[in-house]
Design goal:
The complex is a heterodimer of chains A (about 260) and B (about 425). Chain A has about 260 residues and is mainly alpha-helical. In chain A, about 65% of the residues lie in helices and about 5% in strands. In chain B, α2 (about 30-40) crosses α10 (about 270-295). Chain B has helices at about 5-20, 30-40, 105-115, 130-135, 145-160, 175-190, 210-220, 230-245, 255-265, 270-295, 315-320, 325-340, 345-350, 360-365, 385-390, 410-420, and strands at about 55-60, 75-80, 85-95, 120, 165-175, 200-205, 305, 370-375, 395-400. By secondary structure, chain B is of the alpha/beta class. The longest helix of chain B is centred in the middle third of the chain and has 27 residues, at about 270-295. Classes of the chains: A mainly alpha (about 260), B alpha/beta (about 425).
């Protein structure tokens, strides 16, 4: 049930992206005449026709910038306070185990994607981690695999598509989930669906248990992220995050 | 395993430090560029507490409403750490473009906190947040005006915290541009007498601001293929940043992340210089665009263009990254100052942005101390001697360390804390 809802959410976001991008402009608004000529105008400083490395394909920027802002507001008023409360009430070892548990469970996705990428190295490492941490690590609550020196890989369906030559497509900021691309957004939908299917087959949870699972998953995710919206110190944060995200994904896929 | 020799080496180093209180200065990196980028090797780092209870807060300083694109910068962000009981308080001012909670400010704060001080950490007056929230003019660079802005913010924060903290006295410190700011704040306080600082510790300040910004701008000449290749160089750098980002918990675009990225490349001296130049260029781009929007001067954004929180500012980012501090000085800061003060010449303004301007005060202020490195990249030849002349035996000059490279070392931190421990003159 959750899986279906989430799938719908992603589909909805994509449709909204297409529909809204036409409607929201990001162009600077020009009002009246210039009081005096701009000292270093773009015409004077930048060479015409040159594309810059930070210019990532972003035809839905109007929609993206609005979602970026929406995400920042939701983060400030809901996610951050909730994750701070979570950090206050749960002791560090408990949080550690929660992180371990979700990491271990998500390794099922990493395993599937490693297989789909035909990578023996990642498949072997991830299988090793799953076996060790699900048994010795008590269903993933502990992480003896790291102490044994088995590396943690992170492979999702977006990377798998990238591995087989699918380009990222337009940059896309997903509601609540943040920076993505058309390819990675679709990939995230597939991963989420697969993960939910696996969960219901392995654990057979009641709906309220599934909601609790998702709730704790989100708290854990936010508690482990150092990022704070609008505190990077640059007025060009949207652009910087877009560049870092795109570069990071490129490196992830090349790895 | 490979760890053992390292541990043994650390123990030997620690033992040496323990046995020889008057040991020779042992910061090992002789190349100032490398020192600036790499910092202090782990075995030579001063032991400092990791569990300082830093808290973050923000405060409204100015009545002025923030421009829509800076809607999140209406209040000045700062951090502090409170001692459990009554204690003196140290204000710390961050260096060029650095936020209150940047790594170097936190490092200094941990040192002061470990000796029983409350600490309040402030962002550099050239950060976007400070310009929007606390700069009365909106155009930073004027030493006295920046000091007045800092002074007002410090008083507001003090008033806010006085409920929570029992404060028995005040001291002031800063590194790099923050140390320069501290000198002017101290000078202002000598007249206004609000805080009556017990100690003022300046860590690696510029002497003449224009000299330092020229040196920093020129570092970008080291980009392979010249400044026209800036974008390609920047892209290489960003790829390396991306790689470092994978292992980092934050996406704060500060020196730490950049330098970490550069460790993965094989840096020549030219590349190191170019990197340092880029770090400062990012700071200047942020500053220039912010000041331009707040004042609507028409420097890179046309005066008749309105930008809001959703506006694509990419073209201004590209322009800003191609301009330096010196462009800001000549085509924005100077004309702006001249409009307030007709007849002011460029030369006069350059000389005014200098510690020499307040050297009469600094040479007699027994509570103001300076720590510096003979090979610091932001000074030109002769400026270390200027500091020694002004400060006399209140100047400590290390032979090497580049710009802030030795800040984490035992020797450096020890010097800072000894100054704080000495009786108030």
């Amino acid at each position: 049930m959750m899986a279906q809802q989430n799938r719908h959410l992603v589909a909805l976001a994509l449709i909204a992206a297409g529909a809204l991008s036409a409607g929201c402009s990001t162009a600077p608004v020009v009002e009246g005449e210039e009081a005096k000529p701009t000292v270093f105008s773009a015409d004077r400083v930048l060479q015409p026709g040159v594309t810059y490395s930070a210019d990532i394909y972003d035809p839905w920027q109007g929609f993206n910038r609005r979602v970026y802002y929406f995400n920042a507001v939701v983060d400030k008023h809901f996610l951050l306070p909730a994750s701070n409360a979570y950090k206050t009430v749960t002791p560090a070892p408990v949080r550690r185990s929660v992180t371990n548990f979700f990491d271990n469970f998500l390794n099922l996705n990493t395993l599937l994607n490693s297989v789909l990428q035909l990578s023996p190295k990642k498949t072997a490492a991830t299988t090793g981690r799953l076996v060790v941490n699900s048994t010795l690590g008590v269903l993933g609550l502990f992480d003896p695999a790291t102490r044994m020196g088995i590396p943690q890989e992170q492979e999702d369906f977006g990377q798998t598509l990238g591995r087989w030559g699918v380009g990222p497509g337009p940059y896309l900021v997903l509601p609540l989930l943040g920076p993505s691309s058309l390819r990675d957004g679709l990939g995230a939908g597939v991963d989420w669906y697969v993960n939910n299917e696996l969960r219901s087959r392995i654990f057979a949870l009641e709906p309220w248990q599934e909601w609790t699972w998702t709730g704790i998953y989100v708290l854990n995710l936010r508690a482990n992220l150092g990022f704070r919206y609008y505190e990077t110190g640059t007025p060009f944060e949207y652009r910087m995050v877009r560049m870092l995200y795109t570069t990071k994904r490129r490196l992830d896929i090349e790895r | 395993m490979a760890l053992q020799p390292l541990i043994r080496k650390s123990i030997v180093v620690l033992a040496l430090l323990w046995m020889a209180p008057a040991h020779a200065y042992d910061y090992p990196i002789a190349d100032p560029f490398l020192a600036t980028v790499v910092g202090t090797p782990a075995p030579l780092k001063a032991p400092l507490p990791e569990d300082v209870p830093f808290r973050q807060s923000s405060i409204r300083v100015l009545e002025r409403k923030a421009p829509d694109i800076f809607w999140y910068d209406q209040e000045l962000r700062y951090s502090y750490a409170a001692q459990p009981g009554p204690a003196p308080l140290v204000f710390l001012i961050a260096g060029t473009g650095a936020a209150h909670n940047g790594s170097k400010n936190l490092l200094a704060a941990r040192a002061y906190y470990s000796r029983g001080y409350h600490v309040v950490l402030l962002s550099s007056p050239v950060t976007a947040n400070f310009i929007v929230a606390a700069s009365a003019s909106g155009i930073p660079g004027d030493a006295s005006a920046d000091a007045a802005d800092l002074y007002l913010a410090m008083q507001k924060i003090r008033d806010r915290l006085s409920d929570k903290l029992e404060i028995t006295g005040y001291s002031l410190s800063g590194y790099s541009l923050g140390a320069f700011n501290a000198a002017y704040v101290s000078h202002l306080d000598a007249q206004k007498k609000v805080f009556n600082f017990d100690k003022v510790v300046m860590m690696n300040p510029p002497v003449r601001l224009y000299t330092s910004i020229s040196l920093l701008d020129r570092m970008l000449d080291n980009i392979p293929g010249g400044a026209d290749n800036f974008d390609r160089f920047y892209e290489q750098l960003v790829s390396a940043v991306g790689a470092a980002y994978k292992t980092s918990e934050t996406v704060r675009f500060d020196e730490e992340l950049l330098f970490k990225a550069f460790e993965t490349l094989r840096p020549t001296n030219e590349l190191l210089a170019a990197l340092i130049g880029v770090v400062f260029r990012v700071s200047s781009a942020n500053m220039v665009f912010t000041a331009d929007v707040v004042t609507n001067f028409g420097f890179i954004k046309p005066t008749n263009v309105r930008v809001d929180r959703y506006t694509d500012t990419g073209v201004y980012a590209e322009v800003a990254m191609r301009l330096g501090f010196t462009d800001y000085f000549h085509a924005f800061f100077y004309p702006y100052q001249q409009s307030l003060e007709p007849g002011l010449t460029r030369g006069e303004l350059i000389e005014r942005m200098s510690l020499n301007t307040i050297s009469d005060y600094l040479s007699t202020a027994d509570n103001v101390f300076v720590i510096h490195n003979a090979d610091d990249l932001i000074l030109e030849p002769g400026e270390i001697q200027t500091l020694q002349q002004i400060f006399g035996n209140r100047a400590t000059i290390f032979p090497r360390g580049g710009h802030m490279g030795n800040m984490e070392s035992y020797d450096y931190i020890d010097t800072v804390l000894n100054i704080m421990n000495a009786p108030v003159p």
